[in-house]
Design goal:
Layout: H1 3-15, H2 38-52, E1 62-70, E2 73-75, H3 81-84, E3 85-97, E4 102-111, E5 114-125, E6 128-137, H4 190-204, E7 215-223, E8 226-227, H5 246-251, E9 260-270, E10 275-284, E11 291-292, E12 298-299, E13 307-318, E14 321-332, E15 344-346
Parallel strand pairs: 1-6, 7-14
Antiparallel strand pairs: 1-2, 3-4, 4-5, 5-6, 7-8, 9-10, 9-15, 10-13, 11-12, 13-14
Helix pairs in contact: 1-4
Length: 351
């Protein structure tokens, strides 16, 4: 039994699952020989972004039959952001995986002059991009700042209105931890990195605080550029999960509205820097109307309808612990599927 299969079995027992079949796709952990190193992949990603703002895919290293999805919808190039991108800022977070001939990135882009966040996975064959999986986080479809021209989001009676957006904390350069070359003793195998990242999602699904991922004391998470951990305690003096570190926040059971985490796909692994890039669907099924977390705080979710977060998440793993997390989120119709079936796939315990 491989380490990955052993870890999957251990995780299933921790989650209370009665049985678990290891998906055949887990065998993809053994990748093909690299044809393009880190510098090569990063150059291809930059060429992709440069072509994006020209609205002409032939200006970039893109295969004629390249498959493109945007926010889990299949589109023909050029369409979607390929028609509306108007600029690219300096922010970059690359997750290069030469063993899988893949690079993923997070970037800041302008769309018709408006700031947006872009997360994209590129698969490269013979120097050409053949698969493009893009997530475009626009202000009116994310958990970040809302377009001021839109009416306020509906809030259920008795629910606490959402806090005002805290503003973009990304700046022009990703956090320095994402650029560190880890010492050999600080690294973990590709198998272990996938299992560690997956433990994060397993703890979030129907979160009750009982499942504990291996968080570093310095762990910090940003979602759509906003910090969702380690925020200052408000004037009321009442601490919530957002004012805590990653481990303490998870232990509160505050994220119970994440009722099902489907399509857990691990698409790029950078062993040298300890980075894992995942795409996943977070379902909020609308049935969790009130609950009490481990702090004794009564939580009443504001949303009234089911929906699904389409999420791209980057984990920095050092010494076997999750240290930094950066996620992009887009609200999609409930039950949306990613329109891709590749990558290293791991199970959801609620699906």
């Amino acid at each position: 039994m491989t380490l990955l299969k052993k870890s999957l079995l251990a995780l299933s027992l921790l989650a209370g699952a009665s049985a678990l079949s290891v998906p055949a796709a887990a065998d993809q952990i053994q990748p093909p020989a690299p044809a393009c190193n880190r510098a090569c992949l990063e150059n291809i990603a930059e060429a992709y972004l440069k072509a994006l703002v020209t609205h002409d895919p032939t200006k970039g290293p893109i295969a004629k039959n390249a498959r493109y999805t945007e926010n889990s919808v299949v589109l023909n190039l050029p369409d979607g952001l390929w028609r509306t991108a108007s600029g690219v800022g300096p922010y970059r977070l690359f997750i290069a995986d030469p063993k899988m001939n893949t690079i993923a990135f997070q970037a800041k882009v302008q769309e018709n002059g408006a700031p947006i966040l872009l997360s994209t996975r590129l698969v490269v064959d013979d120097g050409k991009i053949t698969r493009i999986e893009a997530m475009v986080a626009r202000a009116n479809a994310t958990g970040g700042a809302r377009d001021p021209r839109l009416p306020p989001a509906p809030v259920a009676p008795g629910a606490t209105p959402p806090a005002p957006p805290r503003g973009d904390q990304l700046g022009d350069r990703a956090r320095p931890q994402f650029f560190q070359t880890l010492a050999p003793g600080e690294r973990r195998s590709r198998e272990d990195m996938v299992v560690i990242a997956n433990s994060y999602f397993s703890a979030l699904e129907n979160n009750d605080g009982s499942r504990k991922p291996p968080f570093a004391p310095t762990c910090h998470r940003l979602e759509n550029g906003n910090p969702t951990t380690n925020n200052p305690v408000p004037a009321s003096g009442v601490r919530g999960a957002g004012n805590m570190g990653c481990a303490e926040g998870f232990a509160t059971g505050n994220y119970r509205i994440d009722t099902r985490l489907r399509f857990r796909r691990y698409l790029a692994i950078d062993e040298e820097r300890g980075l894992v890039y995942a795409r996943i669907a977070f379902d909020h099924d609308g049935t969790v109307r009130e609950y009490t977390n481990a702090l004794g705080q009564v939580q009443r979710p504001g949303g009234t309808a089911p929906f699904t977060w389409d999420i791209a998440e980057v984990f920095q793993i050092k010494n076997g612990m999750i240290d930094q997390v950066e996620a992009l989120l887009v609200a999609n119709p409930y039950g949306v599927a990613p329109n891709w079936d590749d990558g290293i796939k791991m199970p959801s315990y609620g699906y």
